[in-house]
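quick one
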Amino acid sequence: MNFLHLPSMLTVIILSLWEKSSCGAMTLNSVALPQVSRRARGGGAGVYSTQSRQRRSWVWNQFFVLEEYTGDEPLYIGKLHSDLDKGDGQVRYVLSGEGAMSIFSIDEDTGDIHTTKRLDREQQAYYTLKAQARDRNTNLPLEPESQFIIKVQDINDNEPKFLDGPYVARVAERSPVGTSVVTVVATDVDDPTYGNSAHLVYSILQGQPYFSVEPKSGVVRTALPDMDRELRDHYLLVIQAKDMIGQMGGLSGTTTVTVMLTDVSIKSYQFSVPESTVVSSVVAKIKALDADAGPNAEMDYRILDGDGLGTFRMLTDPHTQEGLVILIKTLDFETKTRYTLRVEASNRYMDTRFLSAGPFSDVATVRLQVEDVNEPPCFSPRVSQMAVSEAAPVGTEVGSVLAHDPDALNCPIRYAIDRKSDVENYFDIDRQSGVIRTSRRLDRELSALHNITVLATESCKSHDISLSSCERQVYLTGVSVSVDHSQVGKAVVLVSVTDVNDNAPSFPVEYQTFICENAQPGQVRLTCGLQTGIHRKVSECAEGE
Ligand SMILES: *[C@@H]1O[C@H](CO)[C@@H](O)[C@H](O)[C@H]1NC(C)=O
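structure w/ 2-acetamido-2-deoxy-beta-D-glucopyranose:
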């Protein structure tokens, strides 16, 4: 964050220098001869007096020379002149100090100063020299030694440079138009106090219409609303800085800015959760990215809103600082297939020094997709009671059962009788309709109640798990599931056999002849004596076999 603020301060400084330069404009080669200056000043500042030999300076204290002079002739800078010089050659001018004789030369007689070297202001902006005027014959000084400077005048010989470029910056997608992205700063080593050689103007060469740059400040801003990260997540901008206030003939430099769109506000995570997930399981983990370490990186997570408030809650993993989404209520794919939570992550400890740097929290959307778990068919009711007369012929319909597929697929159901519950094959069931019929003659006296188990399977699925949702409670409390039972739905059918001779009289002396119901074909038919009721008869039949 701070690195963004620093350059903008620099910009302010540069701008204020520009302002200064506009007040203190100087003219090129404003070489002033002493008499000219005296007149111009109108006897003002008392550095110089014609009457007094006590004057402190007889030389105009500043000369100018243009840098980067490339002409063949030595470049004229200015002239030393003493009022005592009558033009008769009696005065000898002497130059000493920085660059005297090497860079600057003086004509002893006329006082004319020239330079023979090409000067670079960016290397040395001014030279301090001393001037003397001596009597040619006696070599005694006619004037006090006077110090002056030669200032090297800037020309626009340096282009702006982006010292911090190329830039990488981030901005939240869908930011409003004008959102600040980054501030670019170019520097121009030309003299900022003179002319416009270092007066820069920024423009955008590439990146429109999405972004703009402020001409003076270099602040890059968004220029279009609704920039969608899903459509395009980064942009390459080319920003130019041009001196001479951006006018023709100014020098320019460019930099690139890579702008990444971030999804600060609508981060979205997707998880799938099997509907069979046990309550208090962790169903999703999210991690808030935080560059800090230690206590400063400790996070709190909470569910802001969404339709899963009563079904999930959030905790922080103390080791990883991840946000854990925990299931607190059983899921049912057939009731609700997806949940959406808006989740906030925030720093537990907030450093107030950095409050201005932005929010220390982030919001994300967590989507939880409930996965269907294949459940076996479910009978309703799970226990049915039926009755059939013992006189009913084979093939008589006793009743029917119905099971349904609790899964969304709604597969056709196939029925069967668990043969272990009807070893003697009294009953049959229609595979498709669930209609139960007798397959043998019944005998109430032999068996008044048949407890048969009916099975149901789905005909379109072959895989997987879990007990019937009729038994969901058991499963969700954590009983381990064995695959063998998984796909078969079961129901109990209790068939009572009704008696045709309900209150039949019993004659002890009278004998009836009948064939035992359970006699096999070809078996010897026995004559049984009926005496007191069915038990007697059963036992006799049993004995007879
Ligand atoms: C029928 O059999 C099942 C087991 O196959 C048993 O759980 C149930 O209690 C029995 N019902 C009756 C009425 O005997």
